[in-house]
Structure formats: C-alpha cells, structure tokens
Design a protein that fits this description.
Helices cover 38% and strands 19% of the residues. By secondary structure, it is an alpha+beta fold.
Length: 422
C-alpha cells in the first residue's frame, strides 16, 4: 500500500465520520425529546461507528507498514559473522538432532562473542537480525511500547534517579545576602524485572520443508505473545516477576501540590461524577456534561507535560467518548486528516490499548499524560531460545524469552480517570 492508498482511506474515514455524526445527532435529538432512542437509530449509529473504527484500524496498519524500520534499509546488510550466526542458527533449527549443526551454531556464537548455548547458561542467543525483527514487530503491535520511555540495560541492577520535589529559590537584591535554598528531593526508581517466555512447537517434517519460512514464523509468534504480555504489564503489572504497571498502585485524588503529598508512584485520578461511567448529557437540573472530566483532566497536568500528552483507552471506551460534544455542539473526537496525523480527542492523540479497563463502576478506563516522561520500560539486551527436539517425539519445541522491567518514574506526568462520583 502506498501514500495514495492511505490518503484514500483517510478520505473514506472522514466521510464515515460525517455519517456517524448525523446518526448521533439524531440519537441525541430523540434522547432529549423523548428520553429514549429508536432501535433503528441506535443500529444506524453503531454501524457508522464500526465503519469509523474499521477505517482507523486500516489506516494505522498501513502507516505502520509504510514506516517500519525494516523497510527503511536492507535487512541483509549485516556482517559476515552475523550472517554466519544466522545461517548456523537456522541449520540447527531445521535439524536440531544433528550434532554437527549444533556444533556449528556454538562455534558461530563464540565468534560473535556470545556465550555458547547449553542448558546451564540458558540456551542460545537469537541471531541479531532476528532479535531486531522481533523488537520491531513488538513496537508495531504493542501500543504502550510506542509511547513510553524505552531503555536498554545489561543488568537488572538498573536504577533511575528522579527529582520528586524541586529545590527552593529566593529573590535577592544586588547587595543582599545569598541564603542556602532547599535541596531537591531525589528518589531512586528501581524497575522490577521479569522474563516473558513464549512456548512454540513445530513438527520435524515442517521444519525440514524448505518452503516453510521458519524465520518469519519465529519472529511473528514470539512478537505477538511478547507484545501482549508486555502491554498488560505496563498498564497493570504487579511487579512480581514482571514490570510494575502504571495503575498497579491505586490512583489517588491527591494533586501534585497538595499536602500531605500523594504516595510516590501513584498517579492522580479525577472522577467522572457518575458512579458507573461518564453519564449522558442532562438538559435538566442537575446539569451534567460528560466531557467535563476530560477537560479537567487535561488542565490538571502541568503545561510542560501537556505538550506531549495523549489519551490511552480501549476501543470500547473510545466508542463511547466519540459520541460526546462540547458545550458549543462540536464533537470532541475528530479523525486525522493526513498521513501521520492521528485521530484526536479534545485536540490530543489517542492510543488504543485493549488492556485498559472497560467503563464500569470504580474502574479506571482512561489515562492521559506524557507517558514518555512518566514511565520507563527497560530491555535487557538479547533474546534467548532453547530448542528441545527430544521430549515430544516428532515435534521440536522452542522456548523464546526476553527479560524486561518497568516502573513509573514521574507520577506527575500521568493522570487517570475513575468512574465514580468523587
């Protein structure tokens, strides 16, 4: 798909959104007039909304394909040692019971400066080109990895030093005494680490089939499983053998400057004002505008974080919020109008993360903020694989694993919205 095709999809999405707005306007008019919505109007709205979402998904996939790193250069532009490692690896994968093939793989790893694969040292290192392709696919699949601060480390003893409260200051005249100001309060953030392991198997016959693309299979399967586990952990991981998620520590109503201060590592939440959701537009007293909490959330964050802020929610929540208008009758969601320009909610980009909670009582279905400033995801360099052709006759098992860690580093940069009255 080229840029012309994507431009066509963007135009289609714009037309679909016009149909959505017309259907929703009809729904709102019926709701205000009679308090109910006719089934055929609701069905029309749902169909229009599904069309908008389907086109948004197609645009996102097409843009990701166009800008994928592997498409920006030659994937085979690797050193002779890397090429030998890759070729030896696939010779071993296709015939793991061949002692000569396994010896060649071990020799290629020694030449690369990689520890030789044995049960005692945790298996074999994936060739760099395959490891890189898996990483690229995870970026494409995992929405949270695309927006947080991603770093690499060589050990789990990795620390991040953050400024919890800034130092003090004073105004002085030309000849006034300079007094010592308060010292910044620093906190040490230690990301919690865990190993993502995916288990795959193939028959010996399929691996021996030269027309079977083993590299693509390993890359795709490992990336899909790892991205799913990673996305959940970044949002809600409990820190036990996995990253500590943004919402692991229960969000608090305490603001950034309130005293006593909010617990470090907990983000501030703002309530929707309705016990189990965002509510509907009430035209009689007490007046309730479902978008108020969204506006309050945007301006609850300091300007330095708003500049790069975005929304995070799942598709179901976005479908609900897409129906909301502002006080002047304008829809608060709008589609992107050009390639690379995302759809926005109240002027800020939206990241769809299906691991976010649905709208429900006491749930936190929406986050907003500068996630690159707020959260750090750490990769321990290198993906490892254990090849097991023995335990199940006729099948070869693959255990692909990588270690990652993560934790909030600045809780002032992120907000959550809670479905609650207060």
């Amino acid at each position: 798909m080229d840029m012309k095709d994507i431009a066509g999809l963007i135009q289609e999405q714009g037309e679909a959104f016009h149909e959505f707005k017309a259907a929703n306007d009809e729904r709102l008019a019926q709701l205000e007039k009679t308090g109910t919505v006719l089934p055929e109007v609701q069905a029309k709205l749902e169909a229009a909304n599904a069309s908008v979402e389907e086109l948004a998904d197609r645009i996102s996939r097409a843009e990701a394909e166009m800008t994928a790193p592997s498409r920006m250069g030659d994937p085979d532009a690797i050193s002779p040692e890397q090429r030998e490692h890759r070729d030896a690896f696939f010779a071993a994968v296709r015939n793991p019971k061949d002692s000569q093939a396994m010896a060649r793989l071990q020799e290629s790893q020694r030449n690369m400066g990689v520890s030789v694969g044995t049960p005692s040292d945790g298996g074999y290192a994936l060739p760099e080109v395959i490891d890189r392709n898996i990483a690229e696919k995870i970026v494409d699949i995992s929405p949270m990895r695309q927006i947080v601060d991603v770093r690499s480390a060589s050990t789990t003893d990795y620390k991040i030093l953050v400024n919890v409260h800034g130092g003090g200051y004073e105004w002085v005249g030309e000849n006034d005494t300079r007094n010592e100001t308060s010292t910044p309060q620093l906190a040490e953030v230690s990301p919690t680490f865990g190993t993502i392991q995916s288990y795959m198997f193939a028959t010996e016959e399929s691996l021996n089939d030269l027309f079977v693309n083993v590299q693509s299979w390993i890359e795709s399967e490992a990336a899909l499983q790892h991205a799913k586990a990673e996305g959940i952990s970044v949002i809600s991981g409990n820190g036990t053998k996995k990253p500590t998620g943004i919402l692991n520590a229960t969000p608090e109503a305490v603001g950034d400057e309130d005293s006593p201060a909010r617990t470090f590592g907990s983000v501030q939440f703002l309530p929707t004002g309705v016990a189990d959701g965002f509510g509907t537009l009430a035209v009689t007293s007490p007046f309730h505008y479902p978008g108020d909490v969204l506006l309050d959330t945007v301006y609850s964050i300091k300007a330095q974080y708003r500049a790069a802020a975005r929304w995070v929610m799942n598709k179901s929540t976005l479908s609900t919020l897409r129906k909301i208008k502002d006080s002047e009758g304008n829809y608060i969601w709008s589609p992107g109008l050009a390639m690379g320009q995302p759809s926005t909610l109240m002027g800020y980009a939206v990241t769809e993360a299906e691991d976010m909670a649905d709208i429900a009582a006491n749930a936190f279905p929406v986050m907003f903020g500068d996630f690159r400033e707020g959260y750090c995801l750490v990769d321990l360099v290198g993906t490892r694989i254990t090849i097991d052709p023995y335990t199940t006759p006729g099948k070869v098992k693959f255990y692909v694993r990588r270690r990652i860690g993560g934790k909030i580093k600045n809780d002032d940069a992120i907000r959550a919205i809670k479905c609650a009255t207060s």
